[in-house]
């Protein structure tokens, strides 16, 4: 009986991770038909998601605080039902103002997942490393699914249905989880002991944490801006390939993020076997030439370039998470990861603003990617400044 709650918690945690990332990027596809239906410029429409995306990060710490003092399963139920209801409201929006309000609610409920769902998974999983690896894949699958789900529903039934159908599915998932909780098949779990760590000096910990604040934020800006730009970039530069509908664009986005998701297992393997600082810095610095090339690339070469860029960005995450766990004191690791998620999703409005600002003034995306190239170089150099200490190495290297 003990194994079933563990498995069901993994199932609902993975589904929640997929939903969260799908809804977080969903509007980037829906905005394409809205340009035509509402007769508004892309820069004005894409900016409607700015506050909602900001709330994903801004409300992460309060969501985790409530879960610690109340119930992780209760907060997960609110997440599923709330994000689904918000999506339905977006589909019923009569104009930009009501859509903006729905998107704000979407961001508020989406903020629950990372500070609640990941610690909950760690408490309930029987094999934590494997569970976290599977969970990470679902995040990328969620981004990939956004392209396919939104593109298909938009082309077949329109953008309103593209919001309503996933919303109903999420609410139904919440109902299924509520049933499992009531039956005692899903629980909050129990806090387990943390792995032993070789302690750094306080100064090395502070230095590592300070550097990670810079690299985590910069990497998130690159990820969020790329995520916002790709659908429109594919539509503009691959028009002959994708046609005039949303499905072709969505399919290419799905392929790029789907491949990136599958490579997280390999990235985790590298983080287990090699010095974390080297893996982390290499993943960040490899983004710079890809961003530079993507600034002017067109036609079919743009697809593998964009895919490689996303792979490089997500490949840094396993090493980043391990570095953060070792830089933070054991008793404050949850707080440290809360800070990470605030930074990560707090970068979203900056990424969106960058895309909206540059495209409005230049009519293209070249300078967006030039700016992101500079960010990659700066945070790559910062990653090289991380301390090379025993506690910043993979655990497998310290095992005897």
Q: How would you describe this protein?
A:
- The radius of gyration is 20 Å and the shape is globular.
- The protein has helices spanning 3-38, 42-46, 50-58, 60-69, 72-91, 96-110, 113-124, 128-157, 159-182, 202-237, 239-242, 246-262, 264-273, 276-285, 287-294, 302-327, 333-362, 366-383, 395-398.
- Helices cover 81% and strands 0% of the residues.
- It has 19 helices and no strands.
- It has 400 residues and is an all-alpha fold.
Pick out its properties:
Growth Hormone, Chain: A; 2 domains; mainly alpha; globular; 19 helices; 400 residues
What's the story with the biggest beta sheet? Answer: none
Distance between the termini: 34 Å
Q: Find the structural class using helix and strand composition.
A: mainly alpha
CATH architecture of the largest domain: Up-down Bundle
> Number of helical segments?
19
Low-pLDDT parts are: 191-199, 394-400
For this structure, the CATH topology of the largest domain is Growth Hormone, Chain: A
What is the CATH superfamily of the largest domain?
Answer: MFS general substrate transporter like domains
Secondary structure layout plus pairing:
Layout: H1 3-38, H2 42-46, H3 50-58, H4 60-69, H5 72-91, H6 96-110, H7 113-124, H8 128-157, H9 159-182, H10 202-237, H11 239-242, H12 246-262, H13 264-273, H14 276-285, H15 287-294, H16 302-327, H17 333-362, H18 366-383, H19 395-398
Helix pairs in contact: 1-5, 1-7, 1-8, 1-9, 1-10, 3-6, 3-17, 4-5, 4-7, 5-6, 5-7, 5-9, 8-9, 8-12, 10-12, 10-16, 10-17, 10-18, 12-16, 13-16, 14-16, 14-18, 15-16, 15-18
